[in-house]
Amino acid sequence: MCRRRSSSSCTAGGSPERLRRLPAAHGRTDGTPSVTEHRAPRRAAEEISASSGAAARPHEPGASGGDAGVPADPRGGSRPGSRTAAGAGPGEGPGEHRVRATTQDGPAARPPRPREQPPREPASVPGPAPASQPVRASGGAHAGPAEPETGRLRYVGAATRRIARGLDLDEIVLGLCRSVVPTFADAILVYLRDPLPVGDERPVEPLVLRLRRTDRIPEDADTEGTLGPRLPLVPAPEVSAAAETTRVRMDGPLAEVLRGVRPLFAETEQVEQALAELVDCEVPTGRRAVLAPLRGRRRVIGAAVLLRRPDRPAFEPDDLLIAAQLATHTALGVDKAVLYGREAYIADQLQRAMLPDSLPQPTGVRLASRYLPAAETARVGGDWYDAIPLPGSRVALVVGDVMGHSMQSAAIMGQLRTTVQTLAGLDLPPQEVLYHLDEQAQRLGHDRMATCVYAVYDPIAHRLVVANAGHPPPVMLHANGRTEVLKVPEGAPIGVGGVPFEAVELPAPADATLLLYTDGLVESRTRDVWSGIERLRERLGAVGSIVCPPPLEPLCDEVLDILGPGDRDDDIALLAARFDGIAPSDVAYWFLEPHPQTAGRARRLVRRALRRWDLDDLADSVELLVSEVVTNAVRYAGRPITLRLLRTDVLRCEVGDDAPQLPRMRHAGTQDENGRGLFLVHRLAQRWGATRLSAGKVVWFELPLP
Known about the structure:
- This protein is α+β, with helices and mostly antiparallel strands and 706 residues long.
- It contains 19 helices and 21 strands.
- Strand 8 (383-390) and strand 9 form a beta hairpin.
- The longest helix has 36 residues, at 319-354.
- The termini are far apart.
- Residues 1-132, 136-143 and 221-238 have low confidence and may be disordered.
């Protein structure tokens, strides 16, 4: 501290005796009292008044002397060398300040404490500017230099957070428009590349910009508000006249400005020409228009035009920094939204491709289905459903659920569904299908866990065979409105390994409705599985009490209504089957021994059945096709063959034998004696096929009814 005082002040720093021996340092030698002697009472009075709070503050009107215009020191005291800081008049140095700290005759007093000043209030940080005031680089008349900068940072932070919140492309652009209008500008036009490049894709040439969104201050007849007049920047027809698409010339001014990346005022000829090429309508120029290119991670993906109306202050140079920040965050957000949209599209297509596009409509049963993902932002899951036609007009109904909600879960689901279809084609019993499915899951990995229910419906026998692997039990709605939770063995989930599965055979009466579903329909954070199953049963009973049997499609919608607002914790797969069955009068069934006369007997039996059904018009075609198929079966069969006719919406004929080899169609030569049977079937039948069974095969064909 001695560096700022005179040498006399540092020497006379203590006792009264030493102060008395230094009259020349602080007083005149001609007998006039020293400065210290004359002003000590005044200093004491000032200290008393300061301690009591009576002295006027430096910035208050009426403060003594010339202290009112002296700003306070940021450290809490007053500036050194001023009257306010030292209590001295003009010409008094720091040494005199030190001497006046003591009395003439008394002991040495403590150095004077700085005059207590009231705590300074922090500078108020302005929020977003009102609608009538843009974000400016300079503050008001009484604003400090930090206030506009703080407000500017706050605005940019809030705007970028709003822009970054969106995941969808429209949300990103809307966030930019809502952040800019009317706080920063009166109107904004956002142009994006069409089509937008994704990731490392090479953009399509030529460069075309499409107007994505236009926002401006709407017209308001009442302009006497606190926010001032809210008038459009230009008349509405001119705003709406902005070009919808702009094809950028590679050698034009717009391409040159876009390559420069930085936002620019429309005050140069090049930028004015670029703006005119982009919007193709009359807009303000100069510092009332900013053209900001939108550059993503690798390339320019669009442009934004910011405009201000004539009755509002023009943009300032520092506003270009704000425009650059907003443009950068918007471009990165657009890149993010495009990538996210592509990934969501791929995931959705993967999920949809692994689910059946449409359900088959086999004979004797009607089907309907629903699939709901856990969330719109995560459409990939492991739930699936399927309906597989089987020989003998039977149908396999399958619903499964792979643990997890990821691409891996969806991939495992696709593998398991393919395995189920392959096993069903072998016509294995339901418990055998689950056993082999469990083996396949173990081959895929140790953590490949899933639940599955597999049911086979026979419309002729009106029976249902069900096997379960850790899945919620099916629910049946009978024709009289009664609901029932089917009692099926629970079984272990798929992937456990070494656990046998059991099947149970149950009646499936006509007009009954079977519901197969995943646990996402009945289980949530607010209820357990069995409470959800009971709720599902009650909803089915309520629907059945109104109309029974209810239509399948509305029934599926009614079932999904049991879900509350917070019950969507998991994917939901729902499969509904209405059992119509096939009446015994529409079925003709025979066992035939495999000998050379069997083909002739089969023709006679078929003709009788067609006469009974009044289908004599089909007799010739059916006899020819049955003769060819039965002849082929007799050639390879070692046990009795089966012949069955089914009359539904079509006439179906099925011939079964114990030979496992499936027949294939050949093109016989002119000299060949064999190989024309299946060719005739292919040409005359509406549909035909061959299915391998666990003990043989079935060859079938269908003809339309006259």
